[in-house]
Design goal:
The complex is a heterodimer of chains A (451) and B (173).
Chain A (H helix, E strand, L loop, with lengths): L9 H5 L13 H10 L6 E5 L8 E7 L2 E7 L5 E5 L14 E3 L2 E3 L6 E3 L4 E3 L3 H4 L15 E5 L2 E5 L7 H5 L3 H9 L5 E13 L2 H10 L4 H4 L1 H5 L5 H8 L4 E9 L5 E9 L21 H6 L3 H7 L2 E8 L3 E8 L11 E11 L4 E11 L4 H15 L7 H14 L17 E2 L8 E4 L5 H14 L4
Antiparallel strand pairs in A: 1-10, 2-3, 2-5, 3-4, 6-7, 7-8, 9-10, 11-17, 12-13, 12-19, 13-14, 14-15, 15-16, 16-17, 18-19
Chain B lengths: L15 H16 L3 H6 L1 E12 L10 E11 H9 L14 E13 L5 E12 L4 E15 L2 E11 L6 H4 L4
Parallel strand pairs in B: 1-6
Antiparallel strand pairs in B: 1-2, 3-4, 4-5, 5-6
Classes of the chains: A alpha+beta (451), B alpha+beta (173).
């Protein structure tokens, strides 16, 4: 699909991929293949450069089946190091956060600089054989690449460069990040929770599951958690409806953008004037000036956008109603980025980072963070909780049989979005599994090649 | 704007029994599903927060973030949360899990302006059918006089586990 535009790739994107059978969500053997062929081969988000402002700042994170230390070294570079001593394998960092120039193993004292070099071995001269080379025992160091403050890493020496992995999806990352015409502040430390359910269930939901909103989140809509416009659009009240664009690019990346439009609107309108729901109206003109015309078409009137950077990074930006806050507060946007790392086939560690535009007021940032925490955080009792309950229910019942799953929603029903302002395969349709098909197509290419 | 929780002032043992009684009643209201009774324990300006637990190398440093929360809520949000039990589509709350709260080590401190800070330990057992959990936390509460009783103005929940499960986080601590 690389290098193609809307409409030209729809036949492949719209076609049903080979479906994962149910064992793909429960089988430890499948997870072993995923760790080798997906997590061992792809770039993965590990955090943000802003989390590591000073030399020595580190955090311990999960990368596939491994625990790694993400650390800024004394020369200012960010390293991703296996958190395991090269002598016997002992875990080096036991804290989750800290600052250290060196990591000293608690078992026999091997000591590593924060760029991974082995710099100290007790009794090296007296007791190790002549010719023992410290340099052959440095910590395994992953390839690291930064993109606009996002820190990605991969163990795979042969993997294409990060920008090639992101491919056409970079257009959408840039459009979302360029919107406020300033930088983004990472509100740390991130939230973490262990969810019951296979990592793919949580991830494909973010890729584009508009279908579950009317059922799984009906209570949240009925309680008014979202702005009137979004609620009305989603539930089809008051003559408005949600024009949803499902967009997938090569590599399994996908997003779903929701625009509230008058009922019957078939394609993305040209915004006149542009509007950015959930952001202060006083900023809108400045936002527009900071973007290209095509970015404005993508971002304007967008009430919700969520998606996946393959394999396991998810994001969501949505306007949240002040029902979650205090009287008189305006509708407020929040943006959250997440990773879903499998602990085993049934349990997933989720890490959540909330991002706020640096240029907005402290009060707006406070509200944005609060609304994320109240609805969509690890502890969100009014929204996220229904998703988590569904993933657990699915995990309990899905079994390990070859019984089928179904991802045909929207086939021959959704419509090509040839006018959509970015690359990739875009389709209009509030109810479509177009993006999940793209996600599992890429997953299948990596995990079950040739099947 | 919600400021930091008032520091624990001078220890006030004379209030320990009253605080323990209030916290026991409040916990029982939640466990028994008497939602309005529980809401009646909360001040209209009630603010609840569960800071992000962080394991740092230096044990002298705080084990919970001073800026980031796993969850926070107002009284209005708890009205919505508890109101879900009556909604057909509130899947996570129908059937709701069984909970049993055990409150101990209640200690009262002066908190200024007639308020009392009550710190306590909490053990919660939750049974969601096929899944169950036991989780412990410290709590830092601020109570203010309300008629003949007290009203809960602030609650800060300090989870002992660094990375909780979604089932554990579904608990109102």
């Amino acid at each position: 699909m690389a290098g193609t535009r809307n409409g030209t790739t729809t036949s492949r994107a719209a076609a049903a991929p080979p479906l994962p059978d149910r064992a793909a969500f429960t089988d430890a053997a499948v997870l072993r293949r995923e760790r080798e062929r997906v997590f061992g081969a792809c770039w993965q988000l590990l955090g943000f450069t802003a989390e590591f402002p000073d030399a020595g700042d580190y955090a311990v994170r999960r990368m596939g089946g491994d625990e790694v230390v993400v650390v800024r070294d004394e020369r200012g570079a960010i390293n991703v190091l296996l958190n395991s001593c090269t002598h016997r394998g002992t875990q080096l960092c036991r804290a989750s956060f800290g600052n250290a120039a060196h990591f000293r193993c608690s078992y026999h004292g091997w000591t590593f600089a924060n760029d991974g070099r082995l710099v100290g071995v007790p009794a090296l001269r007296t007791s190790y054989p002549p010719g023992f080379a410290k340099s052959r025992h440095d910590l395994p160091r992953a390839r690291v690449a930064e993109y606009r403050g996002f820190v990605f890493a991969t163990w795979c020496a042969e993997a294409a460069e990060l920008v090639d992995h992101l491919g056409e999806f970079r257009w959408y990352l840039d459009a979302m990040l360029d919107l406020p015409g300033c930088g983004w502040e990472v509100c740390g430390p991130p939230q973490r929770v262990v969810a019951q359910g296979n990592w793919k269930l949580l991830t494909d939901n973010f890729a584009g599951d508009g279908y579950h909103l009317g059922t799984a989140h009906r209570a949240a809509f009925d309680q008014g958690l979202f702005s009137d416009e979004l609620t009305d659009g989603t539930l089809g009240r008051r003559g408005s409806e949600l024009l949803a664009a499902n967009l997938a690019t090569a590599g399994g990346h996908a997003l779903r953008a929701g625009y509230v439009v008058p009922a019957g609107t078939r394609t993305l309108p040209v915004p006149d004037p542009p509007a950015y729901p959930g952001y202060p109206e006083s900023e809108w003109a400045r936002f527009t000036a900071a973007q290209t015309d095509e970015q404005v078409r993508f971002n304007s009137h967008c009430h919700v956008v969520h998606g996946v950077v393959f394999p396991n990074t998810a994001f969501l930006s949505v306007s949240q109603d002040p029902v979650l806050g205090r009287e008189g507060e305006p509708v407020t946007r929040y943006t959250v980025w997440r990773t879903h790392v499998p602990l085993d086939a049934h349990r997933t560690e989720c890490t959540y980072w909330t991002l706020v535009p640096t240029g907005l007021s402290a009060e707006w940032k406070r509200r944005s963070r609060a609304y994320q925490a109240r609805s969509q955080s690890a502890g969100g009792l009014l929204f996220e909780v229904d998703d988590m309950a569904n993933f657990a229910a699915l995990d309990r019942a899905v079994g390990d049989s070859a019984a089928p799953t179904d991802l045909s929603l929207g086939l021959q029903r959704d419509r090509p979005a040839a006018d959509f302002p970015g690359p990739g395969s875009a389709r209009y349709g509030a109810l479509s599994e177009h993006n999940q098909r793209a996600f599992y197509r890429r997953w299948h290419e990596l995990v079950e090649p040739g099947r | 704007m919600i400021g930091p929780l008032p520091q624990a002032g001078q220890r006030c043992p004379r209030w320990d029994a009253a605080m323990a009684g209030f916290l026991a009643d409040e916990a029982a209201a939640l466990d028994d599903g008497r939602h309005q009774d529980w809401l009646d324990h909360l001040h209209e300006d009630f603010h609840y927060e569960v800071p992000v637990p962080v394991v740092r190398e230096d044990p002298a440093l705080p084990r919970h973030s001073g800026t980031a929360v796993l969850f926070e809520a107002t009284k209005g949000m708890f009205r919505l949360k508890l109101g879900r039990a009556g909604m057909r589509h509130a899947w996570a709350d129908r059937p709701g899990p069984r909970t049993r709260r055990f409150v101990s080590a209640v200690r009262a401190f002066e908190a200024g302006s007639g308020a009392v800070r009550a710190d306590s330990h909490l053990l919660v057992a939750i049974d969601g059918g096929r899944d169950r959990a036991l989780i412990t936390a410290g709590r830092e509460d601020v109570l203010v006089p309300s008629g003949a009783s007290w009203s809960l103005l602030r609650r800060r929940v300090l989870l002992d586990v660094e990375v909780p499960t979604h089932l554990e986080l579904s608990i109102v601590f």
